[in-house]
Amino acid sequence: MRMPDLTALLTATAVFTSALAFAAQADEVHVLNWKGYGADEPWAVAAFEKATGNKVVNDFFNSEQEMLTKIRTNPGLYDVVMINAAFNDQAMAEKLIQPIDTSKLPNYADISKDKASSPMLDHDGKVYGVPWVWGLTALAINEKSFDKPPTSIAEMWNPAHKGRVVIRDDAVEAVQFGAIATGQNINDIKDMDAVKTKLTSLMPQIKTFWSSENDWNQMVASNQIDIGTYWSGSADRAKTHFKLPVSLVIPQEGAVAWLDAFSIPVGSKNVAGAQAFINYMIDPKFYVEWVTKVGAPVSANTKAVEALPEDAFNRKVMGDPEVAKRIQFQAPITDKQREAYLALWQQLKVDVK
Amino acid sequence: MAAQTASRSGLKSALPLLAPAYLWLTVAIFLPLSAMVFFSFMTELPLSGKPWAFTLGNYAAFFSQSLYLTLLLASLRLGLEVTLWCIVIGYPAAYVLAKVLKGRSREAIFLLVILPFWSNGLVRIFSWAMVLREGGILDTALNAVLPFKINIDLMYSYPAVIIGLVHSYVPYMVLTCYLTLQAIDDSLIEAGRSLGASRLQVLKRVIIPLSMPGLVAGAALIFVPVVGSFMEPRILGGRTGTFYGTIIEDQFVAVFNWPLGAALSFILLAVVLVILAIASPVLKRAA
Question: What is the topology classification, in CATH, of domain A135-257+330-351?
């Protein structure tokens, strides 16, 4: 009777190891996000792992297109993915992300109503994205170059700053910036020629096209630039974390606003872990720590913003109803539009050579 | 008959030696490159899950817009200028290494020449950024020495791109020229001198013709990658840093339009091959 014993033992071992393997896999939460954007902060990962027993595995992308490619080509690998709301529609249409059961996210109830009910994230009454943070692509100035912060977007065209102006090397951002400068709706640009003329006259002012926060901060640190387009969260980080003379300006003409949200890809192996992670990311405690230690955009969770000190930039300026009136949220754009914007942007860059 | 058998058995014994290299080339270069050729004739990338069809539109796009041709010419000019500067800087250095220096000092200088090879490309470019900008190392150092005030801000300009690229590629020129120069028999130079040729004549009639293969190989090794370069122009060129390579990168990274990006790349490949083909008889005669 030794043989069956052995078989039983082997079977038991096999079952046991496969259960272990399954458990190890189920306990991992694979997160796809920009690098250095909250979800990979070591203190945050440690706190989440301690509280829930899940292990966080971070992966990063450098552009929205790369993010979409990564979830298209690795089905089942990721459990949480950070998607700009303007891209949520496309991800859902390609069946890359699944509806989220918000009843499993205790913090979801505190998300501001206008963000939670955004038509970019909710489709057919189902939630495909949990609003996380929002921010602006506005202007930022080198405080050393200004006695008084400017109020108008026209400052970018001021001849006094010739050769000391920067703009991001991004066709969509550049075209939408041009739309604001010509008083148009960023999501429905009627007069593309006006945008082109306006941007053409900006090009001789430009020092360089920046592509990362690091570019911007280095140029300010070495006093090479006066003014340029910048992201609100990055300007905050430059000031609080890197102690640079940077301040954000929300021009009277308006600014481009974006909303970042978390989604769960189709085929996620650890939906419960993903839900716990997203819930942690919108938790006021995490948010306050993120703002204080690192600098961050504005949380979509109203309780989280209220937990900030009263004079905090993200509460005082970004929460100002006057600001809310001026900003325009980015809506989805089609591939055709994006290619047309890129063609326009490349033409502008060639003409200035 | 005997010769034929010998050559066949030579091939047979060479096969195990060739196989790893060719297997690697097939898997790592030929297959992805064929996939890219295939993509360049498609309307959409199959990865995106959208319906696709075959088209010549991506190649037609190159001819329908003047911007691609303008940039291609700018990139070819950049390639020529960088190659020229590499010859100007690299050839004398190679000559000194091969013919003047001996022993320890040669090893030390040789090490200095190939040192850029061992550092990461991005590190090199970012260190140039620190040197070239206004208030940077070059500006501060020159103003500390010179009695008058000068303002050096080369960063974000065409010269900055040239400087960065020449720095990255000059070791190729030094290495290829060094090998051919070293192979020149010193007695040929001595014979020329003893027969009454001036130093310049020896250089023109003996040294340069004999080292021509190295110069040509170095020039080709530099010209081809520089024409397609995108990292150096983007980081050092600023407003003027848009080249053919950077717009190909945009198609792949910014708009996920691989078919157009692939088509633009193959047009570049074709142009470079045509240039090398036209140049090869001239160069062969020279060599």
Answer: D-Maltodextrin-Binding Protein; domain 2 (3.40.190)
